[in-house]
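Quick one - inputs below.
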Amino acid sequence: MNKSSILIKLLFIVVASVIIHGQAFADLAEIKERGELRHLGVRYANFVTGAGDGFDVELVQGFARHLGVEYKLVYSNFYNVIRDLLGQDVVRKDGQVGLTGEYPVKGDMIAAGFTVLPWRQAVLNYSTPTFPSQVLLVAPAQSTTLPIKGSENLDQDIAETKDLIGAQRLLVMEKTCLDPANYGLKDRGINLQSYTKSTNINEMAPTLLAGEADYTLLDVPDVILDLQKWAGKIKVIGPISGHQNLAAAFPKESPELQAEFNRYLEQVRANGEYDRLLQKYYPGIQNWFPEFFASHLN
Amino acid sequence: MFTLLLQRLQARITTVVAWFFAVYSILIISHSMLSWHQMKQDSDRYFFQEVRQRSELLSNLIDDFHQENRQHALLYEVKAYLKNRDLGMSMRYGLGSSLLAVEQRLKQHVNDWLGAISVDQLLYVDDEGDVLVNTEPATPLPDALGRWLKQGGNGLYVDGEGRLVSLQAVDYPNNAGAMVSIANLRVLLSTGDGVNKMPWREILVVGDGRYIGMRGEEPLLPGMQQAMESIKMGEVVENDAVVANWMDLDKVIMIGLPLAVDGLRLVRIMPRELIYGHIPEFHVMVVAAALPILMLFGAHLLDKTRLAAEQLKTGIALAEQRRKSAEKQNLALSSEIQQRVRVERALKTSEERWMLAVSGANDGIWDWNPETGQTFFSDRWKRLLGFYPGDIADHISERDMLIHPEDQERVSLALDQHLQGATHYYQCEFRMRCKDGHYAWVYERGRALHDRDGKVIRVTGSLSDISDRRQAEFELEQRNAQLNAMFDTSPDGMVSFDPQMAIQFVNPAFLSMTSLDMSSMLGLDAVAFSNLLNGLCDPSAGFIGVDTMRQQPLDSPSSNVIELTSAGKRVLEIKLIESASASIPVILFFRDITAETEVDRMKSEFVSMAAHELRTPMASIYGYSELLLHSGLKDPLQEESAKTIYKEAGLMASIIDEFLDLTRIESRKGANFVFERVDLQQVVEAAVDSYPVPEGRAAPDLEPCAGPLWVYADANKIKQTLNNIVSNAYKYSPQGGAVRVALLSADGCCGFEVRDHGIGMTPEQLERVYERFYRADSAGTIPGTGLGMSIVKEIVDFHGGNIRFSSEYGKGSKVELWLPEMAADGAGAKSETSVPQLRQCLH
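Output:
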């Protein structure tokens, strides 16, 4: 390597660092100064519909107005959304969570029906929960597997549901809330079919109906819509997870932005805007998770 | 001719003009009345059309409401839920979200509803009526929801709250349930004010007569339900008082038309003034029509009066001339007429009085003309025989035919004798045949009137019905015959007295018993009869007299046993009966008991003789057994046997002694008693002192008395009674206890009482205490003969005294013995009257 090439490389590193730092995550002051809030959204259920609206889209739009800045929706997917927020990839190995690589930071916060998971909490800050969820096992209507009866004991229901899978094909999506590692589904002899054609969870049900798997994992917001959309074609077998929370995610370096979002969230819950969004995008969800809405609204 | 016609018309010009006016007016008014009817029909038709359009509009709205609900049954969310349910998903995981989607969609429909009838509540229910989705959970569901679902589901109903309910079955296989839409019917109703602010209203009448107004369910006024039910579909109803009162109006017009729901009717109620206000009242039309007729009638009267006045004027002049000529004739006639009037009036008055008397009389009246046979029979005469006035002709032969054939000769004879002057009056009792064929007894009287020549010109009389009297007489004769037979054949003698207590009747049996004759008996008074009968008796058993028997108390049988000696020995028992009859106040009955008395005497003699004969050998057994005991028997068995013989022989000797004593008292009837004036206190003290007190018992306690108690008694017998009573007191108190004796004095009587604290007696035992050989100790552990109290009773009876025995089982007994007390000077000695006095003081 000659000096000129070394200089060129150093120059590139400097320039890249400048560029990277210039794209780095920003806290509340920087965003206000910039005059724009970048919302990282993933097309998923009715949170981010892809048509420019959705529960999380309208929620963050309101937050931008709250801050007095412009709103910008930056589309991402569940594989890259953390990288797009932090500028680094998440690595999970042997139970350890780490960051690696350097990438452009494309947004200031994630809000896309984003499940609060322990490994994510290791690298992200979550707002107060914005939505409840649960991961369910779904099968085609013609499946010989019968739905469980359901009981008051959720752990028992989960165990019963998992046992029904046996060695059949289960459609999952890694690095998302449908990652089988989150729910102890690996190493159980299940024929796991990782969906990789798309990063859109909405595609899971059509894939199941196409006969590419015997079961699929879906979370409640998606199930609510799919049971209407493919009524009579799919059926919920039972729960795979306990109750989960969805929330907006922030870089750990943006605590003020996170705190301001929490204040905003309290405000919209108090003034009824939050309820309006629920009724619009997920009507009846309050009755599915009454405990969640009772505890977070009071 | 034309001129004549004109003259006649001229004379009647008023009537002609009135006729012309009347015809003209009637034509106009008849046309007006036709118009009136036409206007009323038009008003009704307009009212009907308006309400019909209104009912059609409401029916369309209701139908739209029902059609809209049909869309609910086709909702995609409902189908999604049903499909998911069929896949077996649990409500907790998946199926619940499907129902939530249905609920949200239904709520969205409620908010977005554009129909005229606003939906208050939407429900999705399963086939059992269980609610799956309810947009208003706090609002109660129709009570009949389940019943409607079972009847088929689809349809429109009105529930008990007056709400419109649409049911639409969900078209999905297998128990898909139904969609239910509920709306408020009141929004359909209108109301308002018409001319002069007169209110009109609409109400909805449900099938059972309930009605729904603008303010909801109105209070049901009395009669309102009947008023609503009386409205026939499409028919205008005018002036129902209940409804008018409800709307605070004088008169109302109503019409009802059906709506799209079974049993639901729209009723519009309008003030009558609003519908018919522009039409004059019918009675005004009638009055207007009547006026020309009245005017015509008035004009006719006026013309007629005027013409009559002219004719009258001419007639008056002519009449004046005739009057003067007739006046003279009238004066003569007037006098004659007045005279005749007075005579006729007097005759009429007399006739009226006669007819009044005839009609008011209880007897039938007849009036016979012997010359013609013509006879007047009053209505009463005919009714007495059961005939109607028209049944009997006015001729004497009618009466003769009714007389009983067996009586005709007797009746004719009596009547002839009177007509010939042999009797002052004619009277006869005989039988006449009544209309129904039976014969009634009648009493006919009459009197003949003669002319100056002595010829009978008239016979007048009366007829009375005496059937009842004759029947009563017949029955009385029968009864007398029966009574006479009974008296004559009775074996007992009877003597009855009249109210003056003179003998009225004596039967043959009495005469046979006493050998007296009837003639000497009848008319005797009670005292003479008593003396006569007493003279026939043995002095020891004489007749005590009628008056004495009557004075004996009513609760005691008034009897007296006499012994006749005059006609051979004969014993008669006499009983006196005081009758309630005023004519026969007292009757004496005599029963011959000679044979019974002889049998009793022979029985007593036999018993006495038998007892005497037993007494001698029993004394030997008793004595020798005593001797054996004192001779020192060494064998214990022999000694025990001797003791038993001695004890039982002693008891048997006591029985024989007491039995002899009792028969002696009975047979001698107290003749061996030595009555004298004694101090009862001394007698009792002596008896108590000498009483052999049983071993181990205390002597009787005697309570002292303040002074002497004089009685007329046999002292020894009184002592015997005390000994017997005290003996019982000791024997029947085996557990010990004091025996107390006390002297008594009260209300002219005196006596003593004995108390113990023994075993006492039950009421049943107490009733039998005087029976011979009866012993309260049925086990036989207490020695005794069972004759002691019988002897006491006999002795006390012969003293004219009384015993009162009271006892309480387990606590003891008390015996009181009462005798008539004598005064200190000896007055009140034993006499027959002392017994009732004693009873009086003891009760």
